[in-house]
Amino acid sequence: MWNVEEFMRAATVTVDGLATYVDESQRGLPPVLRRRPPRELAERLGLARWIREGGMTPDSYADFLAAYLDEGTRLHHPAYLGHQVAAPDFPAALADFVHGAANNPMAIYEMGASAATVEFGVLRWMLDKVGFGETGGGVLTHGGSLANLTALLAARAAAAPEAWTEGVPADLALLAPASSHYSLTRAAAILGLGERAVMPLDVDELGRIDVARLPEALERVRRAGRRPMALVANACSTGTGLYDDLRGVGEFCAASGVWFHVDGAHGASALLVEEHRHLLDGIELADSLIWDAHKMLRTSSLAAAVLTKREGDLDAAFQQRASYLFYGDQGFDLIGRTVECSKAELGLKIFLNLAWRGERGLGDYVARQYATAHRFWELAQERPGFECPYEPESNIVCFRYGTADQAVIREDLMADGAFHLTSTEVGGVRHLRITVMAPATDDKTLEQLLDLIGERGGPRADRPYPPRDVLG
């Protein structure tokens, strides 16, 4: 049994350590990340000893926790401009703490009635925001990749109801722009369609779907002897943060009888902002949609919603038999809608953020991050040597500096933990990429980044990638 007194001491150590960690991170005091090699890091953390001998106490745990946090990546840091992962708000962190102790895997209602009911409430809120109303269905999953897979399972069930028992017909196709998240191609392979069944849509120079050429794309699919299982649009694209024309795509799909899936993992949260809601005009035309809370709704990883316009479509995604689980009335169980059997209390993270901040508070966060990204674009435009291929529509900005190897510039910035940013290709050309996630990122941070790139992105960045003096 738990030693409750020891737990309380260790919990106090945890809260104190995390409070210091977040406070220092938000003030930008330590490096945003460290890149110590795994062998050295394992030695610092004493992994071999603790695994072999055990015996950790609240006091020794405090030392371990301090080292563990110090070596991690600080998502609350103003210089964190890397991947699309939230700097989680503390209510979501409380939810993780509660789940860690209570451990109610609530896909089966009897294993967590309160957790399941909270998830129902959160999903109903999301369905209403999207415009699916009372007829829609939803479920939360552990991440956007699982969410996309689940949505496409529903699309497959609609196109080929016999696929679950008889196997996947060889003529199904998935239509998607090349700018789509890699999880779409992965899902096609897992579903049994194969990568070759993913047929590219015509796009503009920035990777957005060319709605006028959708009839041509559909004709190509049919000439190839295939039938479309689903067509995917981005809201927004992972690489550029740009939105597809959802209304144009949705109206085409409705007229053509094609399942319309929207990957809104990152950008669907703009529904909470009056000035940005137009970016999602037409989202109510989708047959399915995913929306990640662990991106712009500031929950910890992972919490992603799968939403369908018709509840029955989601229920058709899976067919399962297990006499120890499925018997009697399953009306309140979510297990029939997910890959996962043991599913964490994901709804609690979203609910507590809503309960603390309100819908308006979460919307204000989204608006601020979008505005900060736009401010970076404005500042970069004023600097010689910087070029941006488009005006940002979200909190993601792609840019280049000079003619040097952009990957080398990135590695140089990350080597000493000065900044964490990413890189992608736009129009086949390598660009630097920032994603404004941390609330602490401000104009001062942006100016510092531009200054540093200007200083480090000169002749020394013309060396081949990777530079030995940076990566060892």
Automatic annotation (TrEMBL):
Gene3D superfamilies: 3.90.1150.170, Type I PLP-dependent aspartate aminotransferase-like (Major domain)
EC number, UniProt record: 4.1.1.86
Molecular function via GO: diaminobutyrate decarboxylase activity
The protein's required cofactors: pyridoxal 5'-phosphate
Keywords in alphabetical order: Decarboxylase, Lyase, Pyridoxal phosphate
Top-level enzyme category: lyase
Signal peptide: none
Family, similarity comment: Belongs to the group II decarboxylase family.
Protein name: L-2,4-diaminobutyrate decarboxylase
